[in-house]
From TrEMBL:
<dbReference type="InterPro" id="IPR006722">
    <property type="entry name" value="Sedlin"/>
</dbReference>
<dbReference type="GO" id="GO:0006888">
    <property type="term" value="P:endoplasmic reticulum to Golgi vesicle-mediated transport"/>
</dbReference>
<protein>
    <recommendedName>
        <fullName>Trafficking protein particle complex subunit 2-like protein</fullName>
    </recommendedName>
</protein>
<comment type="similarity">
    <text>Belongs to the TRAPP small subunits family. Sedlin subfamily.</text>
</comment>
<keyword id="KW-0931">ER-Golgi transport</keyword>
<keyword id="KW-0813">Transport</keyword>
<dbReference type="InterPro" id="IPR011012">
    <property type="entry name" value="Longin-like_dom_sf"/>
</dbReference>
<dbReference type="GO" id="GO:0048471">
    <property type="term" value="C:perinuclear region of cytoplasm"/>
</dbReference>
<dbReference type="Pfam" id="PF04628">
    <property type="entry name" value="Sedlin_N"/>
</dbReference>
<dbReference type="InterPro" id="IPR044760">
    <property type="entry name" value="TRAPPC2L"/>
</dbReference>
């Protein structure tokens, strides 16, 4: 189960941020924003293989004592970050990829909405509920 999910714009500005426990939001914001340096390093160092730009999943970015942070980047440089509890050994790499694909799909739906202003933070309650359901695995 994921404990935090974030969507970061191509200019590294936060567009969406949600946590399961709102009391820990500031702590997770710090961890997510600090992992952006690793995302940039992976994108710039050619870890994606240079020729293989189809792979959007970046894998584990950071492993801390209590959490693991995973990253995903779209072709338009929108970054998705998921923080997973380290004690959760049930989640495998393919399940993390599946979570990212579902979040990407939800993101595509929300930015396709004619009332969404491009570049603005996402503040939809329905979107937040859908992302929380993906994080907890109730989808």
């Amino acid at each position: 189960m994921a404990v935090c999910a974030a969507i970061i714009g191509k200019d590294n500005s936060p567009k969406f941020f949600v946590t399961i426990n709102p009391d820990e939001e500031l702590q997770f914001q710090y961890r997510v924003l600090s992992s952006l340096d690793i995302v940039e390093d992976k994108l710039n160092s050619g870890v994606k293989g240079g020729a293989d730009t189809k792979e959007l999943y970046l894998g584990m970015l950071l492993s801390l004592e209590a959490h693991k942070i995973y990253g995903y980047v779209t072709n338009t440089k929108i970054k998705f970050i998921i923080v997973v509890d380290s004690t959760n050994m049930v989640l495998r790499d393919n399940e993390i990829r599946s979570m990212f694909r579902k979040i990407h799909s939800e993101y595509a739906d929300i930015v396709s909405n004619p009332f969404y202003i491009p570049g603005e933070p996402i503040s939809s309650k329905n979107f937040t509920t859908n992302i929380k359901n993906i994080m907890t695995g109730t989808v």
